[in-house]
Write a structure and sequence with these properties.
alpha+beta, Cytochrome Bc1 Complex, Chain D, domain 2, 2 domains, 3-stranded mixed sheet, two-stranded antiparallel sheet, disordered N terminus
């Protein structure tokens, strides 16, 4: 065993021992209400899930962080959502169209949409998420250039679209196309150890869920609040950015955004949050 694996093994063992020794921090028993609308922040897990219940990451955060999400006036991510709304109504591309030109009022046309992605795209013969659907619309319908990853307003427009599904339970349709096989691939990736630290997603978000490691309270790693506002970085963070951040943290080479690996992982991790309300934009530490 090389020195990195020894360090990783010691760290995981230490975290496990500390958890058993009393540094447990179960999710709080509170209800998330945003602007008076009650969210589903814990619910029965879907069949085949490793947990009996699924929990929103909000339940694992500090009181101060939780409070930021209960009122959209105080939620710092709403500034990004407002930028997304402006983009929605801005004409771009050779066709002289905006998102609103085809879809009208997003509060009506996009309601519930964000809760059902990723979806199977028969043209691409693979799953696509909201970001890729935006780029598809920009290229095919607006005659505009696709957004580069996390640039040009991609995060803000995605947050605006998903915010229209606030409170809608997450549910993806695995019967679409070959989405089930991508779920299988995503599951395999979720449980595969990677990097110099030799850790898998499941080691933190399943084996050590609810435990404290240093100042971090490990959640189930749900993504129903993404794009989410991270206080440590002071801005919106996309799902694939967070995936790549975790991969980087275990000292592994991370794949490109929207790669087959990360799309499969998004399919699987989205399914793991089935039944939780869309909280976009969430607030995390």
């Amino acid at each position: 065993m090389n020195k990195y694996l020894k360090i990783a093994a010691a760290a995981v063992a230490c975290a496990t021992v500390l958890g058993v020794g009393g540094l447990m921090a179960d999710p709080i028993n509170e209800t998330l209400t945003i602007d008076g609308q009650e969210m589903v922040s814990r619910t029965k897990a879907p069949e085949g899930h490793p947990f009996d219940e699924v929990y929103s990451g909000w339940l694992f955060r500090t009181e101060e962080t939780r409070a930021l999400q209960t009122d959209t006036f105080n939620n710092p991510a709403m500034l990004g959502v407002e930028v997304g709304e402006a983009i929605w109504n801005t004409v771009d591309g050779k066709e002289g169209k905006s998102c609103a030109s085809c879809h009208g009022d997003a509060a009506e046309s996009m309601k519930g949409i964000g809760a059902s992605y990723p979806k199977w795209d028969k043209d691409a013969n693979r799953p696509i998420n909201i970001e890729l659907q935006i780029n598809k619309c920009r290229e095919n319908n607006m005659g505009a250039e696709p957004y580069p990853f996390d640039k040009g307003g991609q995060k803000e427009l995605t947050a605006y679209i998903k915010h229209q599904s606030l409170g809608t339970p997450v549910k993806i349709d695995l019967s679409q196309g070959e989405l089930q096989s991508w779920w299988d691939k995503g599951k395999e990736l979720y449980y595969t150890r990677n990097g110099q630290l030799n850790l898998a997603c499941s080691n933190c978000h399943e084996d050590l869920m609810g435990k404290m490691i240093r100042a971090d309270h490990l959640s189930q790693g749900q993504i129903n609040g993404f794009p989410t506002y991270r206080l440590k970085s002071g801005g919106l963070v996309s799902v694939h950015n967070r995936f790549r951040g975790c991969i980087r943290d275990v000292r592994a080479s991370f794949p490109k955004a929207f790669s087959d690996e990360l799309m499969a992982l998004e399919v699987y991790v989205t399914w793991r949050g089935t039944g939780l309300s869309v909280e976009t934009p969430g607030v995390r530490q």
